[in-house]
Task: inverse folding
């Protein structure tokens, strides 16, 4: 997982249930997460155990206790990825910006890594 995320912003292990890891983009985002579910070749779920989105005005910890789910399924000769950030809802202050951010992370960084192995060099 660390490679497609960019590597330098992730610390910890992301390979088996109960692994813990931190994603930190100084001055923008910090989250401590736990890998809570793995169904090989189908599903991975992360639980955000602690978070701080420094750019928020009201509740900088909006991601805490949310879950991120990556589900894959075959569709013909292709694979479909469904990403859900459970708890990221329109009522949250971060919703608009985070939705756009996930588009970059999933549709650009992860996609490019899966297609050609290229690694994100985006600077926060």
Result:
């Amino acid at each position: 997982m660390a490679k497609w995320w960019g590597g330098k912003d992730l610390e910890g292990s992301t390979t088996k249930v109960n692994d813990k890891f931190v994603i930190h983009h100084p001055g923008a985002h910090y989250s401590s997460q736990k890998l809570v579910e793995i169904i090989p070749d189908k599903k991975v779920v992360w639980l955000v155990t602690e978070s701080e989105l420094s750019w928020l005005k009201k509740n900088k910890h909006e991601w805490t206790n949310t879950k991120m789910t990556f589900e894959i399924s075959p569709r013909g000769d292709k694979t479909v990825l469904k990403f859900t950030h459970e708890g990221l809802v329109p009522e949250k202050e971060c919703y608009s910006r985070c939705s756009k951010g996930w588009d970059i992370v999933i549709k650009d960084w992860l996609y490019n890594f899966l297609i050609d192995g290229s690694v994100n060099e985006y600077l926060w």
Notes: The chain has one domain: 2-116.
